[in-house]
Please model this.
Amino acid sequence: MVSQVSTHAGYLDDILARHHHRTNQLLQVLIEAQAHYGYIHTSAIDYLSLQLQLPRAQIEGVASFYSFLYLQPHGDYRVLFSDNITDRMLGNMDLMLSLCKQLWVEPGKISEDGLLFVSTTSCTGMCDQGPALLINNIAINQLTGERINEICVLIRERVPLLEWPAEYFEIADNIRRSDILLGSNFQSGRSLTALLQRGTAETLQQIKVSRLRGRGGAGFSTGMKWELCQAATGREHFVVCNADEGEPGTFKDRVLLNRYADMVFEGMTLCARIIGAKRGFLYLRGEYRYLLEPLLSVLQGRREKNLLGTSILGNNDFNFDIEIHLGAGAYVCGEESALIESLEGHRGTPRNRPPFPVTHGYLNQPTVVNNVETFAATCLIAQNGGAWYAGIGTDTSSGSKILSVSGDCERPGLYEYPFGVTVAQVLSDCGAKDTQAVQISGPSGVCIAAGEFQRRIAFDDIPTAGAFMVFDQSRDMFEVARNFVHFFAHESCGFCTPCRVGTSLLSNMMDKLSQGHGSACDLVEIEKLNLLLQSTSHCGLGHSACNPVLDTIAKFKPAYDIRLTHKEFTPAFDLDSALSQARQMTGRDDAGAHLRECE
Amino acid sequence: MPVPAKLRVATTSLAGCFGCHMSILDIDERLLALLELIEFDRSPLTDIKHCGPCDIGIIEGGVCNAENVHVLREFRANCKTLIAIGACAINGGLPAQRNHLSVSTILNEVYQTQHGLVGGFIPNDPELPLLLDKVHPIHEVVKIDYFIPGCPPSADAIWKVLTDLLAGKTPELGHGLISYD
Amino acid sequence: MNNPTFTLDGKTIPFTEGQTIIQAAIAASVYIPHLCFNPEFKAHGSCKLCTVKANGRKTASCTAQPQPDMIVESNIQELNDERRALLQMLFVEGNHFCPSCEMSGQCQLQATAYELNMMSPHFDHFFPDRPLDASHPEYLLDFNRCILCSLCVQASRDVDGKNVFALAGRGINSHLIVNASQLAETGFSGDDKAAHVCPVGVILKKRVGFVVPVGQRKYDLLPISALAKGD
Ligand SMILES: Cc1cc2nc3c(=O)[nH]c(=O)nc-3n(C[C@H](O)[C@H](O)[C@H](O)COP(=O)(O)O)c2cc1C
Ligand code: SF4
Ligand code: SF4
Ligand code: SF4
Ligand code: FES
Model:
């Protein structure tokens, strides 16, 4: 048994020392602590509470917020099937059930022998190579029935993950179309040299001239963000790179970090020089844990080239370094203020704003938070100038955008285009046929129907954080929306009433329709709930949780109509099944022991 | 608004305690005025066994067993306007406090393992309605048009809702009349 | 020197630098429905009952600051309808069987629901099953009524210096926990500020329930809006 505090002191002391006993590192400490037993033991919490001088309830409160942290034993193998709609379309449910059947375990439960736990998880960012799963937080893609059978054998024989076939863990970049960013021949240090030659003021000016807007979704002007942060007063300034990439269907940041990490870190360093920051963080979603070591070695390489650390490129007053923080399964931590809370070791609850991170961010100090792609783009601007960048794309949207294309098409993967490309062009390039709809920018974004494919990817037409999920005519758009609503309910942080309760009510309503209990009254209710979420939620998650349903009702009404099978209001639960326990207890099965759905 | 004929009203108690019906009777002498305007169909106050076509149905109590479902459906099918009266109809009330227990646990505890019981068995007479796994407020089973909260609602609250309805207004209870206990 | 002002439902309200809309409204004895806001604590901004329209934009009035000459709307049907729906969400999320609750008559959730003419909980109930904590000799915790306002968390941490309470879980599974396996082991005491801040019936003193007769309880006497401070 592992119940003694002293048992835990052994490994926890190491972890705590590495994190300098700093309470802000709590989430990182918990993630590392969990690696020891596959869960965080109560006595481990007691020990951490003692050592970090934090109330144990606070530690428990933090740990229980993140999906990938467990406070109870969760099996030696923890298998989480990615459950984005694209995984569903590729048959993930059958694969999960097959695995469960072979290993005698129920989804969502731990097997009786404590060997494994099987469940689903939100999109793991592998939509171009699904169906995907995470096993003990390591990604395995391109699942087939055969691969599942092999995995069952490996698990049953308790083969350690390290000895599993290496090809399981291969992850493809699938770059299908490159433009200025993916096609750039980036050389470490060139952007920094350009910055030092041009000076910080002039470089910031170039970023502004470029009209670069954030690539994480909101599209705020990057030059203005950096300028506001530079002007803000504080003890210290910080640079944060948002690599939480939780929006289902988005996976371009994964590829950027796998192949262009040097460029991303250089962009962060440019920002640091301009706003005057000495420390930066990259917040890496837990699903991309496998990128941690490669990223750490890129950082080390940059330090060795004097592009990071003290006296960067020989400038005594240019000191900057980057730490990588891991997330642990919480989409909301992509929201910048929740991300900062998480970086500080708290529950990832979005803050009340204003004040915004540019003035009150990490540790309440001025902080720039930008998306991975945004930072990479700033390197191009530093090297080639703002005017050059502004000349690419459209009037409202300069430069290029990387799309993560997945779903019903022949060539899923990354497609980089100058802004202004039409949806039709992307569909033709990726080999999509017979397309019914495209969900752009993920569940939070918009659903585009066939009549609108001449619309363009641009901030003033279809803005996007990158996801581009294609659905052909065979797909049921109601089920697409239902999958997205489940995603939001699962990821709601629970802070505010409308989203905490509303997303669950909405997902229950969608389940009700899907189970054949729908009537016209339900549609009215769904629309009312959507409006309430939109108008009273605390953050972007709640505001956009209703988008998939509102869009599909507007554009694919027949998919809903066929589910409104009852003329009158019908209960959400099945009345006859509600009697089954009593039937079992009394042994009755006469007519009076049953209820029909309608009379 | 002129009232051409008397409005037909039915009432019943599902999983309730008849407290709300007592409150209806508490309307006292106003009941006489009310009877000028309405007549009763199925109700504990009459002998009618099944609800016929009615203008208003008033339901006390939540839905805890199969029979409650049948009665509630009969009311919904026959009443133009259906009113939930009292806490049990509106949120399950006291009977719903069993909802965190499973029906099997309850039946076992009540009929078999309870202290002092010997050789008990779970009744299986087809005449007895079977229990639902949870007690539900009636709006979760059929569409309900109006609600009169209270445990029980006061006679004044009931009077106010009924007269508002008869006057063709959306019923509203102000401070002092609206109450959940 | 004159303070800047804004208008709230047509009434001119003066405010000072740093005040939020609801603070200025309370100072002017105007009621804006609220639950998680308590004038003695930093606003949490989670219940969203206090949502108003400020120059046409919806915002939580307990965290938003007024601007000079801002037009704020609060007591309008659109907002009251939304507030009622939020209340209904809180009622179905928890287990609010008022007749058996010691807070009945003095509960802000209930009184606010009366104020907004909430005749039914409308949605389907979640029927949560969170075990009670009766371990403490003087106090009882019924977690099924918690609206996650975090006032007890703040009070225990910032006033009592004890950290007895914390929020745990995520989404619809969010819930309150205590800093030990049960309340009796936490050092919680009836003298704590945290023992007296819960706006609903979670943190209850034992053996004093139902002592005030129906009809004479706090909100029997006056509606919550008449007690403009709403506490
Ligand atoms: C619920 C939610 C999730 C988000 N997730 C991400 C994300 O995964 N990555 C990201 O860059 N931005 C995300 N954002 C947007 C960030 O809040 C923020 O606007 C962005 O990181 C700023 O960077 P940018 O200006 O470079 O786009 C999210 C926003 C919300 C509301
Ligand atoms: S909208 Fe949802 S995710 Fe955002 S704060 Fe509210 S509960 Fe949390
Ligand atoms: S907390 Fe308030 S609303 Fe809930 S049961 Fe008690 S009195 Fe009723
Ligand atoms: S127990 Fe009461 S004070 Fe504490 S969070 Fe819950 S509702 Fe708020
Ligand atoms: S009172 Fe403002 S959000 Fe709760």
In short: Chain B is about 30% helix and 20% strand. Residues 7-100+132-166 of chain B form a domain with the Rossmann fold fold (CATH 3.40.50.700).
